[in-house]
Amino acid sequence: MPRRFATGFAALAGLAFGLLGSEMTFGQLRPERGGAAAVLYSIELRNASGDLLASPMLVGEEGRPVHLNMLAEEHSDPLQMSLDLDPRSQGGDNICLGYRLSIDDGFAHSGRIGVSYGKERSVRLGRSLRLSLVVARAHSKDFDRLLQRLRRPAA
């Protein structure tokens, strides 16, 4: 019996030292505790007439850039869009959100907009487009409200 205990202890110690050595060699293998919170970006792109051109939702991490490539579909309105969002914390519930939007009309639009979590903000892009967005932290009332929009059928 003592021999089995010693063998089991040696195996567990070998495993622990192996994991520690791997982390020292290759970097952290376990996820960080208390990592960045998930955020949901709800985006609407409308033309001058108010027609909805695109309304994607993106999930990202707080403080990390997000990229979207949206390709045109064969049987629908052809809209190709590339969107980069670069959030910078301004403290509390405020962020400065950098955006870069390219659509198939050949014009690239970029800038920065101040956003509070859960509040809708919009920016005019040239004469004919308006970009509206809402940013919500995961597990918040605003997050749940945005997800409810997805669950409702379109009228």
Notes on the protein architecture:
With 155 residues, the protein is an alpha+beta fold. It has 2 domains: 1-30; 38-151. It is built from 2 helices and 9 strands; from the N terminus they run H-E-E-E-E-E-E-E-E-E-H. It has helices at 2-26, 141-151, and strands at 38-47, 52-54, 57-61, 66-70, 81-89, 94-103, 108-116, 121-125, 129-137. The N and C termini lie far apart (72 Å). The relative contact order is 0.15. The mean pLDDT is 81.
- The number of distinct β-strands equals 9
Q: Can you count the helices?
A: 2
Stretches where pLDDT is under 50 for at least 5 consecutive residues are none
Mean pLDDT: 81
Q: Which class do the helix and strand fractions yield?
A: alpha+beta
Distance between the termini: 72 Å
| Largest sheet features | 5 strands, antiparallel
Helicity level, as a percent range?
A: 10-25%
SSE order, as H and E? Answer: HEEEEEEEEEH
Strand portion: 35-45%
Radius of gyration: 23 Å
Overall 3D form: elongated
Q: What's the domain count?
A: 2
Task: Provide tags for this entry.
155 residues, alpha+beta, 2 domains, 5-stranded antiparallel β-sheet, 4-stranded antiparallel β-sheet, 2 helices, 9 strands, elongated
Secondary-structure map with pairings?
Layout: H1 2-26, E1 38-47, E2 52-54, E3 57-61, E4 66-70, E5 81-89, E6 94-103, E7 108-116, E8 121-125, E9 129-137, H2 141-151
Antiparallel strand pairs: 1-2, 1-3, 1-9, 4-5, 5-6, 6-7, 8-9
Could you write a compact summary of the structure shown?
With 155 residues, this protein is of the alpha+beta class.
